[in-house]
Amino acid sequence: MKSKIMSFVFVFSTLQVIAQEKEPGVKTFAKAVVDKFPNTRTFDVQYEALGPSNYDSRLFGNKYEKGRIEDHNRFKAAFNLPFYASKSKKLVLTTSLRYKYENYGFGDIYNYQTNETYTKENQEFHFWAGALTATYMSTLFKKPVIYNATATIDGDEKKLQRLKGFASAVLVLKRTPSTTITAGALVLLDPSSIVPVTPLFSINHKFKQSKWDMDFILPQRILFRRELLENGRISLGTELNTESFYLNLDNQNLRGVYELNQLELKSGITYEYSFTPKLIAFVKGGVNNVVSARLTEKGERTNRYVYDQKEDAQGYFRFGVSYNLFNRK
Fold first, then answer.
1. Which domain of life is it from (predicted)?
2. How far apart are the C-alpha atoms of 36 and 317, rounded to whole Å?
């Protein structure tokens, strides 16, 4: 699921701008990606603080423990660099590197198996990922189309853990000054994926005689946006995000390397401000709902989880700053 949502973000953010151009090229490609997603710009750093949340968990299908997460913080950094473009400006190769740090602080925890209440030390996790992406822009049935292939390798602070990949093709079905509709398919090259092939769909629509537009990407987001103040933009809506990291466990229940995959549905408000054409900052906040939090053995499908956790809704606040080296206007 994580690779799937990353692909939605990458492909559709590109197409919804490229579809408006008669001759899509490198400049249009870069503008499309960085406009909507800060972590695709040359440099991006983000910090997120999540409020307290109660949780209840199961291990191997049996009640395990319940407790409270008092505080949860994330720091993310990303670097992206297109390093090759063909003479026709149709083929672009991009390399990227991502780092994430997560910190959990716990309150009292009750264990169902021992009927005891105890405290847990703060837990810290590090996650690294590198990727190489090839994107080819062409036409099919006289309509713009983008072919994309990405290979990623990720791990923790100890070592690299997994190699993953995906390939996709997305076609522009409709393009007018106010509306762009795209559709396609994504193939996941990941043995842990439950669904190896999935459809892609998006709509971007600017409302008539209005400053508002709608940005819909299935299943990643639905946002309503408009410009606010000079060089600023506000967005209201809901986004589906994924978070993951590796755990090296050695206890009586679990031994080995495991992967935590968490789906989060974030609803709220975002404000972005451009200090210069290259330097952009944002703040966002609202309500975070954890849709799913599951622990699997490394490389296993997420439906074969050994541990799952339910959490209450919580407030969240995130801010970030990004720098786009190649933006000139």
1. Bacteria
2. 19
Residue 20, pLDDT score: 41
Out of 25-29, 55-59, 119-123, which region has the weakest mean confidence (pLDDT)?
A: 25-29
Amino acid letter at 276? T
What's the average model confidence in pLDDT over 178-183? 89
Q: What is the pTM of this model?
A: 0.87
Over 21-54, what HEC string results? Answer: CCCCCHHHHHHHHHHHCHHHCCEEEEEEEECCEE
User: Which pLDDT tens digit goes with each residue over 48-60?
Assistant: 999 999 999 999 9
What mean pLDDT is reported for the chain? 85
The answer to whether 235 and 223 have CB atoms below 8 angstroms apart is: yes
**Interatomic CA distance for residues 320 and 280, integer angstroms:** 8
Q: Which residues contact 30 (CB under 8 A, 6 or more apart)?
A: 82, 326, 327
Q: How many CB atoms lie within 10 A of CB 140?
A: 12
The rounded distance, in Å, linking the Cα atoms of 39 and 321 is: 10
Q: What is the three-state SS of the chain?
A: CHHHHHHHHHHHHHHHHHCCCCCCCHHHHHHHHHHHCHHHCCEEEEEEEECCEEEEEEECCEEEEEEEEEEEEEEEEEEEEEEEECCCCCEEEEEEEEEEEEEEEEEEEEECCCCEEEECCCEEEEEEEEEEEEEEEEEECCEEEEEEEEEEEEECCCCEEEEEEEEEEEEEEEECCCEEEEEEEEEECCCCCCCCEEEEEEEEEECCCCCCEEEEEECCEEEEEEECCCCEEEEEEEEEEEEEEEEEEECCCCEEEEEEEEEEEEEEEEEEEECCCCEEEEEEEEEEEEEEEEEEECCCCHHHCCEEEEECCEEEEEEEEEECCCCCC
φ and ψ at residue 41, rounded to 5 degrees? -80, 175
- Side chain identity, residue 131: A
Helix axes 26-36 and 2-18, enclosed angle (nearest 10): 120
